[in-house]
């Protein structure tokens, strides 16, 4: 940037990760920066951006609404606008990740990349495919924010009416035109993962890798864990985990959801005769199967039950779904009637 451009300042829009990069860079070179962020962005990202020296403008809605407001500010002020993904230099910078991957793992078979607007996918796919065309490149979106997938399917850029995902870093309604064209030319496929699958991936990264990832960063791991569209058997695969800026309050809920999705927490509702010894019988079976009871609730006032019966809602810490099914089989064998056989989040 010229001295005149630095004096005019910098404007950016972001859900929080690009925001912090811009804020830090602007502070380092003594330029004023304004970052427009969706008002639902995690508090941790907003405060981190402010601490790095940027003026934060919270805009109602999603990333795309913050983007439109940033463009208005740019026209009013003449500041330089730095796009978070639809920019050749930003894409080139993100593409260096592909170079690092091939430096460290030259016999790579596949790379899985989170996708919001598509900058990371475009850059990495371009680098990898030009150097190793045989490597498979997969992009991953949250299933409630599939803008690049819809564009791929229709072979033209599509704008979603709305996006709804806790993976805020990839909650983008419209992919960039540059990123769409590059992704179309260099990516092999775009897939989606559910909110529960993302939560399970975050939990797996915490437990197995001691790594905290935000939802947008963990979608690549979720795809490797759950997607039937990617064959990873015997393959050397890299999952790019592209962010760790997750709000602590969200993290606690995500961990709980991840435990449920992975069959680690479960709730059974059982119809019992309201007489002594019933709870002992249920808990003994659960104990014999190796699970742990963490909550117990008796319901005697349901109008649908017999006067002499009750419902028992019992929360358990379990190993996996196989163990849950074993518990249900043993309870049924002992004469207990299970009212719900779906796994629920513990109340």
Set down the secondary structure blueprint.
Layout: H1 3-8, E1 10-13, H2 17-28, E2 33-38, H3 43-51, E3 55-59, H4 63-77, E4 80-82, H5 88-104, E5 110-114, H6 119-131, E6 136-142, H7 147-154, H8 177-186, E7 189-193, H9 195-209, H10 215-226, E8 237-239, H11 248-261, E9 265-273, H12 278-288, E10 292-299, E11 309-317, H13 321-333, E12 337-340
Parallel strand pairs: 1-2, 1-4, 2-3, 5-6, 5-8, 6-7
Antiparallel strand pairs: 9-11, 9-12, 10-11
Q: Could you give a quick summary of the protein structure above?
A:
This protein has 347 residues and is of the alpha/beta class.
Task: Give an account of the 3D structure.
- The protein is built from 13 helices and twelve strands.
- It has helices at 3-8, 17-28, 43-51, 63-77, 88-104, 119-131, 147-154, 177-186, 195-209, 215-226, 248-261, 278-288, 321-333; strands spanning 10-13, 33-38, 55-59, 80-82, 110-114, 136-142, 189-193, 237-239, 265-273, 292-299, 309-317, 337-340.
- Strand 1, helix 2 (17-28) and strand 2 (33-38) form a beta-alpha-beta unit.
- Helix 2 (17-28) packs parallel to helix 3, helix 6 runs parallel beside helix 8 (177-186) and helix 9 (195-209) packs across helix 10 (215-226).
- The longest helix is centred in the first third of the chain and has 17 residues, at 88-104.
- The radius of gyration is 25 Å and the shape is elongated.
